[in-house]
Amino acid sequence: MTPNAASGPSRRKFLASTAAVTAAVAGGVPLLSACGGGSDGGSRDGTTSGKDAKKLLPAYVASNVVTPDIPSKNGSAIGFTGKLDLADLKTSVPKKLGKGGRVTIMSPFWGSPPKEGNAYYRAMNDLIGVDVVWQNQDGNTYDQKLGAVLASSEVPDVVVVPGWNMTGKIPSAIIGKFADLGPYLSGDAVKEYPNLAAIPTDAWQRSIFGGKLRGLPMPSSYVTGIVPLYRQDIFEKEGYEVPRSCDEFMALAKDATNAKAKRWACLDMKWTAFNAFGVLSGNEKSLGWNEVDGKLVYRIETDEYLEALEWTRKLFAAGVVHPDAKLGKSNAADPGPKFAAGEFLIYNQDSSQWWSRTAEQAVQNPEFKIWGMDIWGHDGGDPTLWAQNPAGIFAFVNKDASESVIREVLAVANTTAAPYGTKEYMATNYGVEGTHYTVEDGVPTKTEQGNIDVMNAYVMVASPAPTIAHPDFPEVAKGQVEWQQRMGAFTKKTTFYGLQIVEPARWTNLSNDFEQLEDDVIRGRKKISDMQQAVSDWRSKGGDKLRDWYKKLLDENGTATG
Q1: Is Zinc-finger among this UniProt entry's keywords (predicted)?
Q2: What is the pTM of this model?
Q3: How many domains does the chain have?
Q4: Spatial separation of the C-alpha atoms in residues 378 and 372, rounded to whole Å
Q5: Least crowded by CB within 10 Å, which of 70, 168, 519, 548?
């Protein structure tokens, strides 16, 4: 049996989903370059913001069912640090909203899907009052299945679409194939579904596609999810200080590295370098643009971008980076075993690994302690961080669905969006007590059957506001939330933050090769001058025209924040 933690899903969790790592913090996944869907006035390109969007957005009504131990601040998740007492669980859905109808849902699934009619599915369907039939598809090849289904006339009642799959023709298909949920959710209408009303407005803004509110979102914190994680136990033993500038990091790295003893300072620190130098986000193409002094600038055109690559190159050149990181792309292999063995002391990765590494090592290596460094400004001052988008996975309802089917779907979503500390949350995330999980000393632990049945199904329909709760390691939950709060204080929102944007197809692949070139530059296989040439080529091959297109979009629609 494996201790489990409560948190929203992320792509990295799903792609590495095992019984040992069953939860992750929803957040930014670096350099996936996913293109969002959306437009104004029903066209296939563009976005919706400003006054037009305000008419579509659901009213926000904060949930008062459960009070978090750590409230949200500066864009952070809410946090829970107490033990779990099943007797104290609240009820957020006092009566079944489902009317007994049947709803088919297609969703990506990582791992082996459970058998139809398993105890988890039966219990959830009974709780909601809806007969949900799952059409689980392999998450690793989901884009292929998604494309085929959306091109056909046989579209399920609900289709889940992760942001990283919104490429090619998928955004246009979303606009053409899925229903407008505005009549059921816009304004005060959402109050019929209190858990959906408590979803942050930013996440709903991201759910506008083609000028209509079409998506049911999985919200996430807008604070960067990439944390410089380090071996706090070794730092304390060796007397190392956490660095507060890039120069301090380099000095520490040289001091900590001893190749003969098979110890290196770090893995590829490119993602942290981007944050330390204030580089615009590479998480999604629209987030890479920002208006500076009246001109739109793309991330790869900035001095900060080149400076971050140069600093990361110097780490490799100094021999302080673990040899494994020299072989391929950034942090491609599972770093867990060698990190636990002390072969390197620092790496940057999704903050979910703060908990998962702690849980992995708790029994066999009780001295092990992983913690997150605050991101520093490259020169020792405060960092400039850029907000990630506040939702990245969406569920859509077939445009041909009847009102009764749409209502059944919203009944499902209102249950799966229940906050932590409620009976509905436990049912959605853990299943049936005794069958799928047990609770000992306030810590829920999934049984073998729980690890088979209770995987990524109902959580994909809609989720509550970003939440971090680890009853087995409450100090980690506290550390994660407080880290987000500190970093959130330095986080700014770019011009196109929070908007679903469909770039014209002729330019969607324009910057696809930059991630590989970045990795080549920092490993010494290419030069900074090669990157400068690539940027020049990008401008001439369409980058400047794409800039004009974004400027026109901005002039016509404004931003989501102002």
Answers
A1: no
A2: 0.90
A3: 2
A4: 17
A5: 548
Find out whether 277 and 381 touch, Cβ atoms under 8 Å: no
Parent domain of 294: 226-386+496-557
pLDDT tens track for 12-27: 333 333 222 223 222 2
Between these two residues, 8 and 462, which has the higher pLDDT value? Answer: 462
Do 89 and 148 sit in the same domain of this protein?
yes
Q: How many residues does the chain have?
A: 562
Same domain, 504 and 460: no
What's the token pair of residue 208? 């506008």
How many other C-beta atoms are found inside a 10 Å radius of the C-beta of residue 117?
9
In a domain, 489, yes or no: no
What letter represents residue 370's amino acid? I
**Mean pLDDT confidence for 440-468:** 96
Q: Is 464 contained in some domain?
A: yes
207 & 115 share domain: yes
Would you state the pLDDT for residue 151?
94
Flag whether pLDDT at 429 surpasses 70. yes
Whether 479 shows a pLDDT value over 90: the answer reads yes
Distance of alpha carbon 57 from alpha carbon 186, whole angstroms: 5
Residue 33 falls inside a structural domain: no
- Which amino acid appears at position 124 of this protein? M
Instruction: Tell me, yes or no, whether 108 and 211 share the same domain.
Output: yes
Please state, in angstroms and rounded to a whole number, the distance separating the CA atoms of residues 257 and 135.
50
Query: Considering the domain boundaries, does residue 327 fall inside one?
Result: yes
Among 469, 484, 509, residue at a domain's last position: 469
In angstroms, the CA 231 to CA 258 distance is: 16
Q: Which CATH number fits the domain that encloses residue 518?
A: 3.40.190.10
Buried b (16+ CB within 10 A) or exposed e, 181-198: bbebbbeeebeebbbbbb
Please answer whether residues 271 and 226 qualify as being in contact, where contact means their C-beta atoms are separated by less than 8 angstroms. Answer: yes
Q: What 3-state DSSP class applies to 235?
A: helix
